[in-house]
Every structure is written in structure tokens, then in C-alpha cells.
Amino acid sequence: MRPLPAVDTLKAAVGQVIASNTTDGYPPTYFIRATLRGDAPDLLARCTALIMKPETLDVLTDAVQRFPTLLTLEDFVARGGAAWGFGDDAIEQSAARAAHFDTIAGERRYI
Hints:
Layout: H1 10-23, H2 29-35, H3 43-52, H4 54-66, H5 73-80, H6 88-105
Helix pairs in contact: 4-6, 5-6
């Protein structure tokens, strides 16, 4: 279990996901492209789409099986997404996904 990094902005959260995944040995290539490394002008919309897209759940589930401490955008959005403008659906989906990833990992990944 790791502490969830402290971030103040969505861009910072995206940066932390990229840095953490890279350090853990999981290159988040699609996430980097989709968010333009956090520089996308429509970052909130892009991140919401990633969270709501069923295919990303499958990809991340596989990744968490291989890298149990994988940090995801959902970990951040479940806790602080309202402050960044995420809607209730995306926040609820993020919370459900984060719980799912914890189950796959066999423990709570972030406190």
C-alpha cells in the first residue's frame, strides 16, 4: 500500500500517473497519447472519456494483475474529481474501478 500522491490539478494527477506507471515498469503509452501528457486543451473531457470507456477497464485490469501497485487516474478522480470538474457519473465510475483494481491487487493499493 502506498500513499496517494498529493496533487492540486488534473494536469498534475495525469503527470503523477505517467511518472508512477513508468517507474513501476508499465509504460502508459496510450494514456500519454490520449491526454497529451496532461497538456490536452480538453483534458477533462478526454479523461472523462477514458474513465467511462469499457475497454480501458479491461486494459487496466490486465495491467493491475501484472503491476499490483499501478496508480490510475481513477484513484485520483474517485477522491478529488469534483474539484476538477468531473461529473458524478465519472466520479462514481472511478470509485468503482479503484475498488475493482484493489480487489485484483489483493489489497488496497493507495491510502
